[in-house]
Specification:
By secondary structure, the protein is of the alpha/beta class. It has eleven helices and seven strands. The structure holds zinc ion.
């Protein structure tokens, strides 16, 4: 090998190593999680039907694992219990999202933890439960003292925080859809699906871009969804879209192994409701207004319904 070739050769190796390091730090990996299970159904889609459709989307698309955060107060019948068992039987996992969906910011530590303990004991009768707690409303407690006390209680019971990295307003899109359906409006389901997928994807990119800009890496992401009608209708479409962008769906347990899982400091982290990436950046002094995607806003979603022409009668 002459000198010139050898120099080119080592430049090529350096370039490859650089690209590899970029790939490693910008992982493009995301786990799927659902809150508030088992959410009640309606006359157009029963709760059980919703569960079957969500499971079908996951299994048809070979998603190995997903985590369903259970609000145990939503378990009101044998069917509700069967729905949770169905997720576990299909190989997915359940976790803890409180009993009464209390806000840790608006209730005392004692009340919050009583409710936590109640959910914990109810979950003991289910299989496939992982000890992750997701705070309702992503409210971790409004004071350092409260956050520290709650965190100590979770740790004592071997719970880790089931944080999210990608927040969104899927719940509001769903509520608008249900209201339109109830009002008997003519719904364009293709347009609704497109709105759902594109809005959630914009949120994923937004929080990933924030991480890349400020943390200089892309963490293993955790997508927040709700166990709602839109997930039952469009989860498959969402999964396909994520993969079409070169991303990989990973298990929630793998995502929660990311270094950002241990970044939470109860005393310092007072801003948690936009997810873990935003919480870390807030603790580093990044302005709050930069930490929230525009679609996390009801008026913005109202406009999207009009732009995407979801119903004929939207103005
Ligand atoms: Zn919730």
């Amino acid at each position: 090998m002459n000198k010139q070739v050898s120099k080119e050769h080592s430049l090529l190796i350096a370039a490859c190593l650089f690209l590899l390091s970029i790939n490693a730090s910008f992982a493009k990996q995301i786990a799927i999680t659902f809150d508030d299970a088992p959410l009640v159904g309606n006359k157009n889609m029963s709760g059980l039907q919703k569960t079957h459709q969500i499971i079908a989307h996951l299994t048809d698309n070979q998603v190995d694992d997903a985590l369903f955060f259970v609000t145990t107060g939503n378990i009101n019948s044998n069917t509700d219990r069967q729905r949770l068992a169905a997720y576990a039987n299909a190989g997915f996992h359940l976790a803890h999202h409180s009993h009464s969906h209390l806000s840790a910011n608006k209730n005392s530590v004692v009340k919050y933890l009583e409710d936590f303990d109640k959910a914990n004991s109810i979950l003991e009768s289910f299989k496939g439960v992982l000890k992750y707690h997701r705070f309702p409303f992503l409210h971790y407690g409004e004071t350092a003292k409260k956050r520290t006390a709650i965190h100590a209680h979770l740790a004592k019971h071997n719970y880790k925080i089931g944080y999210v990295t990608v927040d969104n307003y899927d719940w509001y899109i769903n509520s608008k859809f249900l209201a339109a359906q109830k009002a008997g409006l003519n719904i364009n389901y293709d347009n609704l699906g497109q709105l759902y997928v594109e809005t959630l994807w914009a949120g994923i990119q937004f929080y990933d871009d924030l991480a890349k800009e400020h943390l200089k890496r892309s963490p293993k992401h955790v997508l927040l969804l709700h166990e709602n009608e839109l997930a039952a209708l469009y989860l498959g479409k969402m999964i396909e879209h994520i993969r079409s962008q070169g991303w990989e769906i990973i298990s929630p347990q793998e995502a929660f192994d990311d270094p950002i899982s241990s970044a939470y400091k109860p005393a310092q982290f007072h801003f948690n409701k936009q997810g873990r990436v935003a919480a870390i950046l807030d603790s580093q002094g990044v302005e709050k207004r930069k930490l929230r995607h525009p679609s996390e806003n009801t008026e913005f979603i109202d406009k999207l319904f009009s732009i995407y022409q979801v119903t004929k009668n939207t103005d």
